[in-house]
Amino acid sequence: MNDLALSNLAHEDRTFDPPGDLAARANVSAEVYAEADADPEAFWGRQAERLDWGTPFTRVLDWSKAPFAKWFVGGRLNAAYNCVDRHVENGLGDKVALHFVGEPGDTRAITYSQLKDEVSQAANALIDLGVKAGDRVAIYLPMIPEAVIAMLACARLGAPHTVVFGGFSADALSSRILDCDAKVVITADGGYRRGKASALKPAVDEALQACPGVVSVLVVRRTGEDVAWTGGRDVWWHDVVTSASTTHVPQLFDSEHPLYVMYTSGTTGAPKGILHTTGGYLVQAAYTFWATFDHKPDSDVYWCTADVGWVTGHSYIVYGPLAEGATQVLYEGTPDTPHKGRWWEIIAEYGVTLFYTAPTAIRTCMKWGEQIPAEHDLSSLRVLGSVGESINPEAYVWYRENIGGGKTPIVDTWWQTETGAHMITPLPGVTSGKPGSAMTAFPGISVEVVDDAGEPVGNGEGGYLVITEPWPSMLRTIWGDDERYKETYWSRWPDYYFAGDGAKKDDDGAIWLLGRVDDVMNVSGHRLSTTEIESALVSHPSVAEAAVVGAADDTTGQAVVAFVILRESAKDVEDVSADLRAHVAKEIGPIAKPRQVMVVPELPKTRSGKIMRRLLRDVAENREVGDATTLADSSVMALITAGIVDAKNDED
Length: 652
Ligand code: PRX
Fold this sequence. Notes:
There is one protein chain. Helix content is 33%, strand content 22%. It has 652 residues and is of the alpha/beta class. The strands form 9 sheets. A 7-stranded mixed beta sheet has the order 5-4-17-16-18-19-20, sandwiched between helices. A 5-stranded parallel beta sheet has the order 7-6-8-11-12, sandwiched between helices. Strands 21-22-24-25 form a 4-stranded antiparallel beta sheet. Helix 3 crosses helix 4, helix 5 packs parallel to helix 12 and helix 14 packs across helix 16. The radius of gyration is 24 Å and the shape is globular. 55% of the residues are buried. It binds adenosine-5'-monophosphate-propyl ester (PRX). Adenosine-5'-monophosphate-propyl ester (PRX) binds next to helix 12, strand 20, strand 24 and strand 25.
């Protein structure tokens, strides 16, 4: 288990109760837990009424073919209609849906009625490009309104989108396009990052050399930089979307119609395409948004700092908030461009009331100092959210004091790409918050912490986090691989979904997440697979063998540390570590770049050849190396630590 998280338990034992005024007017009250427990299916059936169903569902859940679920059986709906059109029909056309803030300072307010027109135009343009219901569309865009519009246009047509984070490389993009066989790619010339234009189109051009199935590329002009152009394939957004009709009648799709595929890292080399479908996903995204953030549509301004390229951007920028008719900020850039107070300036300017970010960002702001947020009026904030990893108590308390004025509840939301929406979180008007704990399962969600035998552990004990009942926004399968879905999530304990996380119940039964128990790392709240980075490393001509571990890092939570054995031919290559770091960035993306590459003579392996990452983690974290008795060759660790002294000196 993660020692950092365990030791946190001792550091902060304050509990923060919900503020009285918030509790008095909260969207949900304490009774909700008992109501949901009494009959979870009926509970979710009631929450489904938040949406507009063209054809009502006849049954809430069909679990007869477990673990393949069907939620809201027989129901038909259109996700984009629910996120956009119905608000216009309800008289909210002039309400701002998106306050876009570009990094260079350009801004644009988009009302729900403008959003409806632009989504309809994009849908009509996609139809002209040959997109039909069921076709896959890849989206590779910066954080600009067109990203949201493109996703909703696909949803409107029943064409599942796969959004690829703009920080991923051409190779990562092409492997995702190929895996889901996307027909169209939507991209931009580039976006703005850290004060400069950062190109995207060249990566698409490179990726598509390996993707003959892509027939069209729709390109948004954002930066105005020159781009290479493939005639007959590439079309400008401002040519084909802006001139398209603003009228498009949305069709109804089955509740189980695929909505999107989101790739995420697992324990093997190839990323998994997590499939989410329409009805159940939208119900849970919408309801959790409303309940967890206590969203009041008439007065709240919400801002989630995630990128649309991750699941948080899908559920809590696009589908949840828009289904609930929220007004939100969409910011293109980094928190420190052009200065380190940019986020707080935006909060003050737009009167943001609900703010959702990641612990790694909070720790970075802590390092910059509390005088920076103190220069801005943050008094509008009333609920703060956290996602991506456990928020360490120090960061929790700093966030609450310096951003939340010592009064705002913090909702530490545990969930995953696979779960689609919040699963464990406090409710801000109901649940007390303990810094470092995600507290309790969301109403209607059943989780347990179990031991190796699958038996629940008692309070005060740790084990594995499992989800014991199906939930509406659960993944339906891994795209194209039902077997891998069963094997990955439902085989360790056949009746439970195993999340891959360790957890502990404290003496009151509150849940503390303790990090991954598998070979998945969490760097800045992003999931990276050790195996994926190892394969990238061994694809380099200098490398014979590689092992990657996640080592504790003050800012990013974990950092990638690589141990490599060089090929004989590479022994004299200068600065091999810099070469390898650049190589991983090229193969996967800059987020996967190792913090350190250590050249070692051997790797610690068991007799069956499995690399003992636990021992390498000890080395990477400068700890005394643990029990090495199961190693095939017990002298290896001494060799490695001796070798590393040299490598570390090189790094310095
Ligand atoms: O280990 C958990 C961690 O992030 C993993 C899911 O990563 P991903 O699918 O990329 O989704 C991230 C955004 C939902 C989980 O298995 N994690 C996420 N949120 C928390 C967390 N760990 C502790 N506390 C959290 N609040």
